[in-house]
Design goal:
The chain is α/β, with parallel strands linked by helices. The protein folds into two domains: 156 residues, no CATH class; 140 residues, Trna Endonuclease, Chain: A, domain 1, CATH 3.40.1350. It is built from twelve helices and twelve strands. A hairpin with a 6-residue loop joins strand 9 and strand 10.
Length: 314
Amino acid sequence: MTRAPIAPSEIRFIKLGEQGRWEKSCIEEGTIRLGYESPHHKESLVGNWDVVRKFWLSVRSGPNKEATATRDINQVRDFYELDSNSLWITFYNRVLWWCFAQNEVIEQEDESRIRHTVNGWSCTDLNGNKLSIQNLDGRITMVQGYRGTICGINPDLRDYLVDKINGVVSKEVQTATIHLANLKQSIKALVQGLWWKDFELLTDLIFSQSGWQRISVLGQTEKSIDLDMLSPVTGKKAFIQVKSKADISTLQNSVGHFETMDSFDEFFFVVHTTDKGVNEFCNNDPRIHIINLDRLADLVINAGLVRWIINKRS
C-alpha cells in the first residue's frame, strides 16, 4: 500500500542513548527513548517545568549551569510535548532512520522515558530507496556530532529532508539525470566508433583509473588484445580480453581459456558490440566479469574519460 507523503509539524534529531547504546533496541522495538533520568516524570507530564528546572539546576554545576539547565529543559520538553505529527530522525549503521511517535510518554524502571512509534522506524524513503548517509546532504548528517540528546534541524534543510523522505527529486537533479542519460547514449556511440587499437587504449585507461596496473600485453591480434593487470591494493592479477565484437561462442571460448590459467585471479571480458547471448550471459563464478557497452559508458564517465574519447573521435 502506498504511504501518504509526510508533512511534519516539527523535526528533531534524537540520540538514542550514550554512544548509541539504545539505537538497536529502539529501532527493533519501535520506540524513542530519553536518557534524562529524573524523579519528576509526573511533573513533566503536566508541564510543571519550574519544578523540573529546579531539579536540573541542582544537578548542574559551574559558571554556565543556568544555560546548561535551560538546554536540558528544552530537550526534555521536546520529548514530552512534541505531538505525534513531529518527525524524529536518528542515524544507525550509516543510515538515516525516521519515525513519528505516539503522544504517550512512559517511564521505565531506570527512570528513562520512552514513546512508542506510530508505524515503527523506517530507513527508506516512500519509494523504498535506502537513506544511506553517502546520499544525504552533509549538513543533515553532521547532527550526529551533537553532544546533547535532542536538537532541531537547520530550517534551511527542513524541506530538503522532507522531500528526501517523500522520495521527491528536485528539478535540478531531474535535469542533471536527463543530461547524464543523454551523455551516456552519446558515449556509447563514440565507443563503438573507436579504432580497435584506441579501444584497447581506452580499456587500459579505464582500469588504470580504477587502480589497476598493466604488467604486459599478452596478445597482439587485431580486435583481440589481452592485457595482464595487477591490483596493487589486493595483489590480485587479472586477465583482460578486449574485443570490439563478440558473440556468445567467443565469450564461452574466452571463459574456458581463462579457467585453464592458474596464474590469474580474475577475468574481464570487455566488448562494445555483442549479440543477445553475451548480454544475457550468466555464470556463478565471481571471478568472471563481463563489461559490455552499457557498462563501458558508465566507466568512461566515472573515470573522467569523456573529454579523452571526444578528442579521439573528433
